[in-house]
Write a structure and sequence with these properties.
The structure is a homodimer.
Chain A lengths: L8 H12 L7 E6 L2 E7 L9 H10 L3 H6 L1 E4 L3 H13 L3 E6 L4 H9 L3 E5 L6 H12 L2 E2 L6 H20 L7 E5 L4 H9 L4 E7 L4 H8 L24 H9 L3 E5 L1 H15 L5 H11 L9 E5 L6 H9 L2
Parallel strand pairs in A: 2-10, 3-4, 3-6, 4-5, 7-8, 7-10, 8-9
Antiparallel strand pairs in A: 1-2
Chain lengths: ~325, ~325
């Protein structure tokens, strides 16, 4: 059974209230860029190292008792898998995560450590969507998409409400612009719903800027087949969803693309100035601001969305100049 | 005029109340080591990247209006300098920081950016203590020591009260053991005062373990002249002070020394598991626990005291194995 539902601002508020009961607000840091105070929301400091716990918590807590018994299924080799496993563990819900057989050992182990069952598939010959859908149907489980879902979008949006409350408490006022990393658009659409008065800028890696191009075309365009390699594994989404696109399009969101070098520079800035480990995909919004691709202004909110790094690659990003 | 005063637990409480008005509590993270939940206090996320703002704030706010007008003097090439400059700026007090002429440019610039005056000296021919004392006397300024001062110790101790309140709120109870990086002993003595029921373990780099040896000898022993090089620049204190030593000695604190490799491994663990950038000196307590030199037990508090890194050295620590 598919439940069709549009994400709403009321849903984001509901998500934020539920999430506040289990997760403390992630820290918000204020630091000047070119002399202007900018707010940084450190979602990299969530359990599992990314904002993904928000959407997962909102989605899983919305399941009825019968659905809870039948468990959940998700596919992801990264942060969404951990978010779902984390929420499922706390709710006593069985979680099955579909991961490629060549997924990094550390990610498989982290998912197993959170109590989830891991089902692997062969990237070359099988489709994870098909496998996950088949598993969900066979078991009567609920499929938990990583962004194409009203609850997921609303849950991620709670980061925006939280940041606005923190900025207001600090005397900075509600955000006038939110600059947000974008893969499938769950986080940026959620924040757009959370902050109806803020301008929304989504940031993607060069060549993976399908949300940017889609917003410009007013039509969903996929990533090109010959997209270049990127260190932003969390943002390698081939195509956004009508749910996320529609929210951002209605809000006149604009897109920006950043280079791999700009992303690495942002990781170094975050390490040196904020003492935060930020993964490449989590650093693209900061990269856009530091590179001058988004004009710095007072009341700006920059989201650092995740901090799960491969240490060898991270070390190289730190020393690269 | 020198004010002789012993640090007290009441002073730590007073410091904590004052600090709570200006600084939000630093995050406390809970993560298992060998299956046991351990609490990590992220002082690396303070403004200026270290706990030093605590002691500086407590000391400077205790100055009378006349002393405030005459300003403060401190000597330090690192975190203490920034802490004093940070507090002085917020209080409108003129701060003069004595730094070696070969101090890293970035540290000089950060100190200047905080509005302090920087006076340089030649490490080879001059003594910073003499220069700072002479400056203080000439200007009638107050000298702010980095650890040999009751206010500084009490201020740093506020981290212990904060952590205990956070652990209690999380249902972990008050800390049963605090494991703390130790240079001059200001932070560890302050935490010992803050937590009268906790066992105290101080951690130093190999060869710079003068507090450990002093506690074992019941007498203050200096660092040997041929002490090995260490990446823990924040902990390269040649000799602890009677104030810090006496507090720790009365509390039967014990010392542990860690190797450079153990410290780098702890930096990697903090990056991977906590997504925090921790400087070598800030990571030694974690290093001692991960290396099995301090037995892991429930209710343990590990302090991550600072996060100011040289990116090139940090990148090497990330990739070193």
């Amino acid at each position: 059974m598919t439940i069709l539902r549009q994400p709403t601002r009321a849903g984001v508020r509901d998500a934020a209230a539920k999430i506040a009961l289990i997760l403390p607000p992630t820290p918000l840091f204020v630091l000047p860029i070119n002399g202007v105070d900018v707010a940084f929301k450190a979602e990299s400091l969530q359990p599992v190292g990314a904002f993904k716990v928000r959407g997962a918590w909102h989605r899983l807590t919305a399941l009825g008792s019968e659905a809870r018994v039948r468990g959940v299924v998700a596919f992801s080799s990264g942060n969404h898998a951990q978010g779902v496993a984390w929420a499922a563990k706390r709710l006593g819900i069985a979680a099955t995560i579909v991961m490629p057989s060549d997924a990094p050992r550390v990610k498989v182990e982290s998912t197993l450590a959170l109590g989830a069952e891991v089902v692997t598939y062969d990237r070359a010959t099988e489709s994870r969507e098909t496998i996950a859908a088949r598993l969900a149907e066979a078991r009567g489980s609920t499929l938990v998409p990583s962004f194409d879902d009203a609850w997921i979008i609303e849950g991620q949006g709670s980061a925006g409400l939280e940041a606005a409350a923190q900025m207001t408490a600090l005397g900075l006022g509600s955000p006038v612009r939110a600059v947000v990393p974008c893969g499938g658009g769950g986080l940026s659409a959620g924040i757009a719903l959370a902050l109806p008065d803020a301008a929304i800028t989504v940031v993607e890696p060069d060549g993976w800027d399908d949300m940017k191009r889609s917003l410009e075309a007013s039509w969903i365009l996929p990533v090109a087949d010959d997209a270049p390699p990127t260190a932003c594994d969390a943002l390698m989404t081939k195509q956004v969803s009508p749910l996320t696109f529609d929210v951002l399009s209605r809000r006149d969101a604009t897109g920006v693309a950043v280079s791999e070098a700009e992303t690495a520079a942002a990781q170094r800035w975050a390490a040196e100035k904020l003492r935060l480990v930020v993964e490449p995909g989590g650093a693209v919004a900061l990269a856009a601001v530091l590179a001058g691709k988004v004009a710095v202004k007072a009341g700006m909110l920059v989201v650092l969305s995740g901090g799960n790094v491969d240490l060898a690659a991270y070390g190289r990003a730190m020393t690269q100049t």
